[in-house]
Design goal:
- The longest helix is centred in the first third of the chain and has 18 residues.
- A hairpin with a 6-residue loop joins strand 13 and strand 14.
- With 609 residues, the chain is of the alpha+beta class.
- The chain folds into 3 domains: 382 residues, Glycosyltransferase (Alpha/alpha barrel), CATH 1.50.10.20; 95 residues, Immunoglobulin-like, CATH 2.60.40; 102 residues, no CATH class.
- The radius of gyration is 24 Å and the shape is globular.
- The protein has 16 helices and 28 strands.
- Strands 6, 20, 21, 22, 23, 24, 25, 26, 27 and 28 form a 10-stranded antiparallel sheet that branches. Strands 2-12-13-14-19-16-17 form a 7-stranded antiparallel sheet, with helices on one face. A 5-stranded mixed sheet has the order 1-10-11-15-18.
- Helix 14 packs antiparallel against helix 15 and helix 14 runs parallel beside helix 16.
- The chain is 36% helix and 20% strand.
Length: 609
Amino acid sequence: MITFFSNSPAVTDIFSPLPAGAVRLRGGLARDIRASIDGWILGNVPYHDFSRIFREGRPKYATGEMWGKFVRSGCMMFRSDPDPAIRERMREAVAEILAAERPNGSISCSPPEAQPDGPGGDLWERKYVLLGLLEYYAQIDQDPDVLASMRRQADAIISQIGPAPKADVRDLGWSPNHVESSTLLEPIMRLYALTGERRYLDFARYLVDCGGAKGSDLVQMALANVPPHLMGGVYPKAYETTSYFEGLADYVRATGDELVRQAVLNYFALVRDRELTIVGNGGADQPFHPRVCGEAWSDTAREQTNPDITRMMETCTGVTWMKFCSHILRLTGDCSAAEAIETYVYNGLVGAMKPDGQGFSYVNLLDGAKTTNTGWGWEFGGVRVTCCNLNGPMGLAYIPYVAVMQSAEGPVVNLYNGLDAQCATPSGAPLALSIDTSYPLDGHVRVAVSPSAAEEFTLRLRIPAWSSKTKVAVNGASSDAASGQYLELRREWKPGDMVELDFDMRCRRIEGPHGVNRAGDGRAAVVRGPIVLTREERFDEHFDEPAHIQADADGTVRARSIEQAPAGVRLALEVPTDNGAILMTDYASAGNWGESNIQTWIPCNSANL
């Protein structure tokens, strides 16, 4: 991602990502990332076909998005894992797409005389070409030919879209409200950040003033705190709407527009509070938007136990939400954004990935068959490619991007997977951070702080909201830590200093929410640390039967860890119920990719309904 401005931004981020290669993960998430690189980015993805359709025509509407999604994910993977094989594959893909440029400067699946091609998704496809090239330029090679091509592409769009007599962006697209076309705001703002050329900011202002969707001004709706499932009329598509708000966040950086800033913050809070399920993703088909295939906001936080739901939690939605959270984190320093990222990473994101890394589920369920690859996409030479196959790796690539960040006062630790990070002190001196832990399987975390020389600065450590009793010690001396906040440790740090944290990893019983369909009531879930647990058919033939989970008055469940978890399972526990212990495993491991059903929201015994 390009994060620098050729001219000074109006709003400076509170937190900033560390430079490329500065954060190297260890442990489970590092293995997940490597599996995705080997199984997908460097695997059998038919990326030659992705560029070929720009010359020969698309097989299905919007399939031109696939090239940009593949390259964007690959370049972000290279940012944290500079594997030369990734670089060469990205260079090859970029050379192919540049060769597909049309005489009018566009890179589109539609010839110039058919542009802008609304029903075919032309603007959406051109957006993703720009995003792929922007990421390539930022992470792989600042090739002047790539920058020149991006300028020509953007200029071609500006020549076609805008106030009359040009085409109205709200009239173009494949969806009922055409929200996807206005997501051009994101690459246009990044191109403005890169070049400082005023025409790009002027076009971005047009996209903001249009409000994002036909018949619905998403900015004004967010300002009025309209629930997300009521935004966008009949089509509150979660993924595309959130993508538009990503562009608005970059617009705030460039302009300082206070109303847009408030709309961005309101949208974050609305989605966080109204749409996120227990595993950190959202959107569903029932009860509000049955025709949108589980990809629309649907008041999902309240409806997630609704037994009528058949599709929910599109991977594209979760990844885009994760990226939007990184904007909130950088703009505001709101640790709830980091907590939302963590919940999604350890549950919804990893839970959607094939164990061998060869793709991601299209949607996930909390109860029933967890994963499915049925959804929008196309088969190229025997390889089924969906939008979510291509977006999932982008979510993994964002983990090191947000794990440790930098503030003006010192480093910020957001995620606690094992890692090594190269930071800087406020004076600019080198500072190494090393996290050693088995988290989230274990709650003990050791953070080694090693500045090149003694210096006073602040180390921020995120204390999860779920950890009600966190123990912190700096070189053995205890320190207080409040849940759901950053612990700010300001002192003179010296090489070899050590911070030890012990998070409260007791299991917790979570009562099911009360949605429109009251049949979804009377259910409960179990969570340990950031990990959501589930019952699984592979290990328990009674997995979907009622079971009253025993808990103390404070909701604590006295579960017992199983030292030898079943093969392929990261965490397994015996959870007490009124009729004896039941086996529960982590949501991410469960389901065995379609071979086994799960039950995350456990029905209570009939006497407790």
